[in-house]
Amino acid sequence: MTLKPRQERFCRLFVECANAAQAARAAGYRPESARNTGYRLLKLPGIIQRIGELHTTIADGQCRDVDALLSKLETVYCRAIDQHQLGAAARAIELQAKLGGVAATTRAPRTLHRKGVQPSADEEEIIADPSEGKDAD
What residue spans carry the region label Disordered (predicted)? Predict the structure, then answer.
């Protein structure tokens, strides 16, 4: 089914905003009936198919973008290792994990404590206590 130009605009706008009434108004349908028009358009097989095609195109583009970023981060990682910049290498690995969906994208908030920063619960487990290891006299 070939869509009319206004229907094509509706599909493109709906993919952007995910609001049928807003997409219908922006595509040029009457504002008074945009809600009903958007609902009606989303029931048409040609519209459904076109929106699916647009979603697929967007998803493919995002996958290529992620692959390109992962490749660039691999280059950063390799150079950091060659130059013995372990902090930069670790950061590149962290970003690769986030982009790949392997690691969480947020960190636990830090709060000020005494003269420094209070570690998060995860960090507390690995930071040595200076008083540990001293013999009690």
Answer: 110-137
The Cα 88–Cα 103 span in angstroms is 17
Q: Which residues contact 125 (CB under 8 A, 6 or more apart)?
A: none
Share of the chain above pLDDT 90, in %: 40
Reference 95, options 76, 123, 114, 119; nearest CA is 76
Helix (H) / strand (E) element for 136: namely none
Name the CATH code of domain 5-99 (choices 1.10.10.1400, 2.70.98.10, 1.10.10.10, 3.30.565.10).
1.10.10.1400
pTM of the model: 0.51
Give the C-alpha separation, 96 to 76, whole Å: 11
In the numeric block, the tokens 């691999």 are attached to 74
Helix (H) or strand (E) holding 85: none
114 has pLDDT over 90: no
Higher pLDDT, residue 8 or 134 = 8
